[in-house]
Amino acid sequence: MSSVNPTITTATADKPKSLFSRLIEMGTHQRLLAFASLIVLLIGFSLVSPNFMQTSNMIAILQATSVNGVLAIAATLVIITGGIDLSVGTLMTFTAVMAGVVLTYAGMPLPLGVVAAIATGALCGLCSGTFVAKMKIPPFIATLGMMLILKGLSLVISGTRPIYFNDTPGFDQISRGSLIGEIIPALPIPNGVLILFLVAAAASYILGRTVLGRYAFALGSNEEAVRLSGVNTDGWKMAIYALAGGICGIGGLLIASRLNSAQPALGLGYELEAIAAVVIGGTSLAGGRGTILGTLIGALIMAVLTNGLRVLSVAQEWQTVVTGAIIILAVYADMMRRKKA
Amino acid sequence: MTLLVKMHGIEKRFPGVHCLKSVQFDLAQGEVHALMGENGAGKSTLMKVLSGIYKRDGGEVWISGEPAEPAGPREAQDLGIGIIHQELSLMNDLTVAQNVFIGREPRGAFGRLDERALNRQTADIFAAMNLKLDPRAIVGTLTIAKQQMIEIAKALSFRSRVLIMDEPTAALNDAEIAELFAIIRQLKAEGVGIIYISHKMDEIKQIADRVTVMRDGEYVDTVQASDTPLSRIISMMVGREVRENPLVVPDTSGNDVALEVRKLNRGAEIRDVSFSVKKGEILGFAGLMGAGRTEVARAIFGADPTESGEIRVNGKVCRIKSPNDAVLAGIGYLSEDRKHFGLATGMDVRANITLGSLEAFSTRVGVLDEKAMKDVAVGYISQLGIRTPSDRQEVRFLSGGNQQKVVIAKWLLRDCDVLIFDEPTRGIDIGAKSEIYKLLEDLAGQGRAIIVISSELPEVMRLSHRIAVMCEGRLTGILPGGAGTTQEDIMQLATQRDAAVLLAGEK
After folding, report:
1. Could you tell me which chain B residue has the CA closest to the CA of A225?
2. CB distance from A339 to chain B under 8 Å?
3. Alpha-carbon gap, residue B399 to B406, rounded angstroms
4. pLDDT single digits (tens) B378-411
């Protein structure tokens, strides 16, 4: 497991030479294909449209990646255990609504709203984990149920109306402010992006360096063998789902902050975008294999694609078609590569 | 008489490995030709070349006197070569007949499936094999032995003249093996040539006409099975003489009881099983397949539920509801099925060895100490002689014997007082077997209580200080170890069926 590679940030800056050497270096790693596709996309779009490579556009891409990226990281954790989480999208919305309840309805201070969102996420993840680990419900079904429950609850609690955060000063800064920009004015990277990378670094560390991460891979690799090694597999599995839920809570904060409101009808469809990013990033849906770096690259590819096609004035309907084709292509290419190896 | 198969100068290379070095092999009509060698000797590779799964890099193949170039399993089938893999490839939810004719189902008008013709044709094949089996039975409900017969029927339905059997008896009990051998003899009489791959020495004498031995990808020799002593075949395989130390049963009468099981019950699988093992003792479990030995072991270990019974470790009553509870009580279990239940084969040696003990290698917040894990893994690699390029090698690339040692290392690290070994040498070659035996004896010598479950009587007799025998879920007796106990004594207990069950169960 490699930790988050700084290549990501340099990839969006225009330094083709160092990029190339990085590319060669990446060749020894698994993520060559996804990474190379990202580079090709970046170079391609910048050749076709001079507006594409502008700093403001690059930042827009990163900003667009942040929510999907965070959700995709949550999905990666669960997928590595051999499970799937269909509830990441509506859980994101539900946590945003809960932040609204705490901040706008109850008028509590900002930190409590943050805690509420993350705690709600972790708790809901724990529920999914319990369904899967203790009640032995297949992850697809358990999280499908959870997806609908959370969508419904969001609408019920908010009375189907958006909850605005106008009374909580600073809430919109969670995603839209720029701590980095204050220190280095030339690099106005929004906090949302910063948070994405921090979450990625933390998730990567957990996967690569902690017991929880090791068991995540082991569960995905051979759950029965782990159980027969005397490991409390149920407990660890629940912990992974809870962690993924907590990360969805961060996603909820990011989107609520960006919209300065909790939109209760939002969320459906986000889980598929997240899973798409995971898959493009080379994580196996069969479990046991995957990296956060790959997922990040996957999320970036999707954002670059959407942005680039928009810059080229391709109709939005066609953007969706292209994204679908890319997913199939990415997975096919990955399988071909594995076959050869 | 033309040879069914003749292979000469076969070469096969994979990146970095020279798998087959100018290997030769031939097969006559109506012959059972055993192909032997340790794991990694190249037997399976050679057979994959013959059956068209691998393309050879050099050499020639003749089938029925004609030069042949099987380009894939399909072509090999057309040439009359059928292969029965060690891992059965049947669809469990389909019927027997549907499995036999998968992809070639008899059709009626408009492509409608003709189930009746399907079942009739399957029944015909079974009749020719002298096999009593309902073509409409669901495969998943049948025993492994019956499933194996279906694979054979499937191969025969292609009018195969050459049948390759890769360890066909690995999962069969003695009665089932006899059933299989009867069918092999009948096929022989009909002129089918059979290539028989097995690790079980006694079978070779029973069934094979000739034996070809391979070692490290090279052809060693071909000998007549009837007039070659087994010891010579073994030394050809291993490249050295394997010495077996005779069993010395130590006096453990003064030792404390490590594990005591009282009146363990679950349905018909485990019935009133009671026994105890002392520290430093090796208790063997013998019995036919399905006697309930593995069930008892898994129940003690908490892997499966029990209905009643009491388990005491070092005199203390333990409530064991999960493998996690069992390990905390000091009981370890090494499954008979390493690949599915023992190892995370996609992970490396280090990760597998430490898999059960990660808490010992982590800080309070759960951060792993890779350095300490590496030291421990490297320690066990040298202590147990695990042949691996490094501790970061994925275990799926190791041979069966070395994989087993990785599992053993995992349990040594957990430091359990009671270790249950279920078929510890299944699929392991002879050289590695005696290493595993020595290891088990050393563990007992250190004062651990060892339970060994084995389907191979010579193995049980070679290792056990006492021998517990099971039949149909009951413990039918415990015999002393050593030379005083014969195979017949064990078999008598292993077939001692319960009269009441006989009346109720067999109609």
Report:
1. B341
2. no
3. 11
4. 999 998 888 888 999 999 888 878 898 999 999 9
Of the candidates A308, A331, A340, the residue with the CA atom closest to the CA atom of residue A34: A331
Measure CB to CB from residue B324 to each of A212, A225, A230 and give the nearest one.
A230
Nearest alpha carbon to residue B322 among A231, A129, A212, A130: A231
CB B386 within 8 A of CB B349: yes
pTM of the model: 0.76
Spatial contact of B466 and B281, defined as CB atoms under 8 Å apart: yes
Q: Is A254 helix (H, G, I), strand (E, B) or coil?
A: helix
ipTM exceeds 0.85, yes or no: no
Q: Look at residue A328 in the predicted model and tell me its pLDDT.
A: 87
Q: CA-to-CA distance for B323 and B188, rounded, in angstroms? A: 47
Residue A79's nearest CA partner among A258, A203, A228 is: A203
Nearest-neighbour CA in chain B from A139: distance (Å):
21
B202-219: pLDDT as tens digits = 788 889 999 999 988 889
Structure confidence at residue A19 (pLDDT):
53
Of B453, B464, B448, the closest CA to residue B283 belongs to B464
Secondary element (H or E) of residue B18: strand B17-27
The number of beta carbons lying within 10 Å of the beta carbon of residue A6 is 10
Residue B141 pairs with which residues in a beta bridge?
A: none
Region A64-82 average pLDDT = 96
CB spacing of A210 vs B362 below 8 angstroms: yes
With CA atoms as reference, report the closest residue to A280 among A322, A250, A249.
A322
Structure-block tokens of residue A64: 């667009």
Alpha-carbon gap, residue B361 to B370, rounded angstroms: 8
- CB atoms near residue A33 (< 10 Å): 20
Q: Return residues 277-336 of A near B (CB < 8 Å).
A: 288-289
**pLDDT tens digits for B256-265?**
999 999 999 9
